[in-house]
């Protein structure tokens, strides 16, 4: 099973939202990591056949997904960033409604809804109206509805947006569980969402894929080292302006800096082991005063 993106480009007026992207995915979790506006949603919408590429192809096991029609939609589950939910429906009624839109027979829909609500931990709340749910619960309903047709491909656009730390952990565990027998692609700009669960991470910047690999490979691909050292507090601003500063910890009149650099900035600075967060800053970070352009 392979979903393959081949030289795909999508342009809106003078903006190339996705610019000549190619990569392939099999089963497992794929984390699409990038800052706002990188082109993640546009790419995902093309993978869901909601937007057509200007050029390039997307294939599922060698077949063009735009020519597969209903047979592709049958194997696809999608949770958009702003999924339109119905505040006055109960969770159960909402699931049954979405199942009917997806053409799932009522008997199958009932069984599947029961299983899925159990899996996302919402069985006891199934009679609650959607408007009374927390953000985390709504997102879990979102995943459950995307899973109704037991899809082989599950696409989740920023599924953890607005979740608190407990909900994020719960979500990550759920996504890992779901990816055992399918392809799950999730977009985020939060490193910890994918650091431990993604089999592969795709870094997306300005419409292009700037790196693809495991978490360890992304870290190893960094062209800078991580240095830690202490400076007087008044020098912090200088480092913030001129270097990629991951962290500043102030104590008294001093500050400990964690900085990405290709050379030792201060004699005796400790070289620290890099994390995925450091790699994210390496690819996407800005020095203080720089802006997105
Ligand atoms: N329908 C559209 N018309 C015009 N420009 C668009 C359209 N959709 C996206 N864009 C532009 O394409 C670029 C990529 O947008 P996209 O939503 O794909 O990025 P993203 O990585 O998903 O960002 P976010 O995390 O903020 O959702 C942005 O500059 C956006 O303004």
From TrEMBL:
Keyword Membrane among record annotations: no
The organism's place on the tree of life at top rank: Bacteria
PROSITE patterns in the record: ABC_TRANSPORTER_2
Entries under InterPro entries matching the protein: AAA+_ATPase, ABC_transporter-like_ATP-bd, P-loop_NTPase
Database matches in Pfam families: ABC_tran
Entry's Gene Ontology molecular function annotations: ATP binding
PANTHER family for the chain: ABC TRANSPORTER, ATP-BINDING PROTEIN
Protein's name in the database: ABC transporter ATP-binding protein
């Amino acid at each position: 099973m392979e979903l393959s993106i081949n030289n795909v480009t999508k342009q809106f007026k003078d903006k190339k939202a996705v610019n000549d992207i190619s990569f392939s995915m099999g089963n497992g979790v794929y984390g699409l990591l990038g800052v706002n506006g990188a082109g993640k949603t546009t790419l995902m919408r093309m993978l869901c056949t909601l937007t057509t590429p200007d050029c390039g192809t997307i294939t599922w096991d060698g077949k063009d997904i735009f020519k597969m029609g209903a047979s592709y939609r049958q194997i696809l589950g999608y949770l958009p960033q702003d999924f339109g939910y119905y505040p006055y429906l109960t969770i159960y009624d909402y699931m049954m409604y979405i199942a009917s839109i997806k053409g799932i027979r009522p008997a199958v829909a009932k069984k599947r809804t029961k299983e899925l609500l159990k899996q996302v931990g919402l069985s006891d709340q199934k009679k609650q109206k959607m408007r009374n749910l927390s953000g985390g619960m709504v997102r879990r309903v979102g995943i459950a509805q995307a899973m109704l047709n037991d899809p082989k491909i599950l696409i989740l656009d920023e599924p953890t947006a607005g979740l608190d730390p407990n909900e994020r952990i719960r979500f990550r565990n759920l996504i890992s569980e779901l990816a055992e027998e399918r392809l799950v692609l999730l977009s985020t700009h939060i490193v910890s969402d994918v650091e431990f669960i993604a089999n592969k991470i795709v870094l997306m910047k300005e419409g292009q894929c700037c790196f693809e690999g495991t978490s360890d490979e992304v870290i190893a691909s960094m062209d800078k080292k991580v240095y830690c050292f202490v400076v007087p507090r008044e020098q912090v601003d200088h480092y913030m302006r001129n270097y990629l500063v991951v962290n500043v910890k102030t104590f008294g009149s001093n500050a400990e800096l964690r900085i990405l650099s290709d050379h030792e900035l201060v004699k005796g600075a400790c070289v620290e082991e890099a994390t995925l967060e450091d790699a994210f800053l390496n690819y996407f970070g800005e020095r203080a005063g720089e802006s997105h352009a």
